[in-house]
Amino acid sequence: MNSSPKPSLFVPDPETIRRSRIPDYDGFYAASVADPASFWGNVLKDLHFTKAPTKILDWNPKSFEARWLVGAEGNICENALDRHVRDGFANKVALIWAGDRGEEDIFTYGRLLDQTVRFARILQRLGVGKGDRVTLFLPPTPAQVIAMLACARLGAIHSVVFSGFSQAALRSRLEDFEPKVLVTADCGYRRGKRIPLLETARAARKGLSSIAATLVVPRDASPESLESGERALPDLMEEVRFDGPLSPVPVSCDDPLFVLYTSGTTGKPKGVVHVQLGYMLGTYATTRHIFDLRDSDVYFCVADPGWITGHSYIVYGPLLNRATVLLSEGTPEYPDAGRHWSLIERHRVSIYYSTPTTIRLQMRFGDSWPANRDLSSLRILGSVGEPLNPEAWHWLHRVTGGKLPIMDTWWQTETGMIMVSPLPSTPEKPGSAGRSFPGVVADVVDASGKSLPPGETGTVVIRTPWPSMFRTVFRDPERYRKYWTEIPGAFFSGDSARRDEDGFFFFLGRVDDVIKVAGHRLGTAEIESALITHPKVAEAAAIGKPDELRGEIIKVFVVLHPHATDTPPAHEEIKKHVRTELGGIAEPHEVDIVISLPKTRSGKIMRRVLKAREMGLPEGDLSTLED
Ligand code: WT7
């Protein structure tokens, strides 16, 4: 998909460059990496701290510990809300919510702050204080944003679990995170269908002694009857009605903001830990420069706050920039294929941050959907999650008027912020994510860590620490170390890429056992672990198979238990089993029942061979194959 012969070059018009905050990328970038402390120190001036940092960065290259803003005290919620209210923007719209069933709600900065303070009060009543852990299992609604900000205000640590996850997936995250409080909703909506979240949460939390209380937020008007240990949000709102203001709790440079679980190469998802202050600096700076936010902008990112994109670029980054954020529940094809274009027209959206799968889906639906809407408010476009192929780039560019810059942003849950991206003032090549963000040193290297020349494909690493980097893997410091020891002296991303002679990155995909389905990250081992819990399945292998729409789809190969071969399970039964174990996003698209799997002599499944066979490619070196 990335094999267009010679990419075209798009150069922004001189007026855009002149207006930009970084009109000269090359000079600016060179200065930023020559002296990162002054680059980041400058960004810092826009933010508010109750105690200024004594040192920008304390980096220990032996333990890979990076302490950003040593000695500082502050709070990210204070910077995202109170600071703007104090500056006279209480009446500016902070959040517009578009519900799946056509509902709408609007929050000014004043109202969002007020609701956040109340929510924080409620959490406090339930025993939550600084350093306590809270799991949020909520649909993409204002309550989800408010709950995140309320945790941050208290210095508590949130872990948001995507509301599309199954009971078993939520349970394994609760078991690892051991929250004091679980916040959920009676339900969510997707394509008009009710998703019973409270039911899932009840089943998932059974017997987990850490959870002292479950807070239930109403998404529907219909009140649920509560079980013991559950409290309804409206009742508690009533109780805290006359409580006074609640000051944000100052935190220091090592205090965590959240843990977000993501897939890796083992069966168990890892809890990526981010800290408040460094994360604040990185998300603030990237949102400001990549999306060039101004006070008149309406900013729409299509992600769900349940993923890192939503954390950094729906909630924290944009609110730190005093943006007006549109949050939409549901999918791009409901109630019709013009969902996003209608929202852009209705709310005069100026910045639209989407995903390659969404763009390719819209492309399939056809030009008439965007053509029938007034998209003249748009000024900057963005994409994230997987490579944006040139065809999709050109289509999006054309249907939005043929002039707008498209920020193809590369980053990860671990990086917390965008690492490689064009800026509105820099040239773009369709199929490329541009170059490193100022202050970031991304590189393409061989196995020994040596930089590769233009045109050669290698592994993507980051050479120096960046402010919003993850600080550890929750309860698994060894797994954190692995990121820094795989390639000597650098952070290993798990991606492969090549650069061209101008230094532009072309990302090609993962080099590890992680697959990307419609931008969602899944571990093959995770899918396999789910498959073998099916009573009829003896062995299983999962691979990502290239797909025009979704980038990759999940194909699984299963070997049945001898007793099950007389009554083989239906393919649908196997798919449904994974859906129940992990959630809809992990459901295999194709199932093959096979007699055996290719394995090394030491018994490791050779997924590489399965993938090559599947794609009709040479199978490569088979010298370690068992049979
Ligand atoms: C992986 C990280 C970071 C937000 C969403 C995903 C892939 C992400 C791009 C891009 C090519 C991309 C990489 C990366 N990826 N953005 N612009 N071009 N690939 O976060 O779930 O942590 O996944 O997504 O493979 O490693 P995530």
End-to-end gap: 34 Å
- The share of residues in extended strands comes to 15-25%
Tell me, rounded to a whole number, the average pLDDT: 95
Strand order of the largest sheet: 4-3-15-14-16-17-18
Count of alpha/pi helices:
19
Bound molecules: 5'-O-[(S)-butoxy(hydroxy)phosphoryl]adenosine
Overall SS class: alpha/beta
Give the beta-strand count: 30
Q: Biggest β-sheet, characterized?
A: 7 strands, mixed
Gross morphology is globular
Please describe what this structure looks like.
The chain is α/β, with parallel strands linked by helices and 627 residues long. The chain is 31% helix and 24% strand. The chain contains 19 helices and 30 strands. Strands 4-3-15-14-16-17-18 form a seven-stranded mixed beta sheet, with helices on both faces. It has a five-stranded parallel beta sheet with strand order 6-5-7-10-11, with helices on both faces. Strand 3 (93-98) and strand 4 (104-108) form a beta hairpin. Helix 7 (167-177) crosses helix 8 (197-205) and helix 13 packs across helix 15 (390-399). The radius of gyration is 24 Å and the shape is globular. The chain starts with 13 loop residues before the first helix and ends in a 12-residue tail after the last helix. The model has no long low-confidence stretch (mean pLDDT 95). 5'-O-[(S)-butoxy(hydroxy)phosphoryl]adenosine (WT7) binds next to helix 11, strand 18, strand 24 and strand 25. The site of 5'-O-[(S)-butoxy(hydroxy)phosphoryl]adenosine (WT7) has 21 residues, from helix 11, strand 18, strand 24 and strand 25.
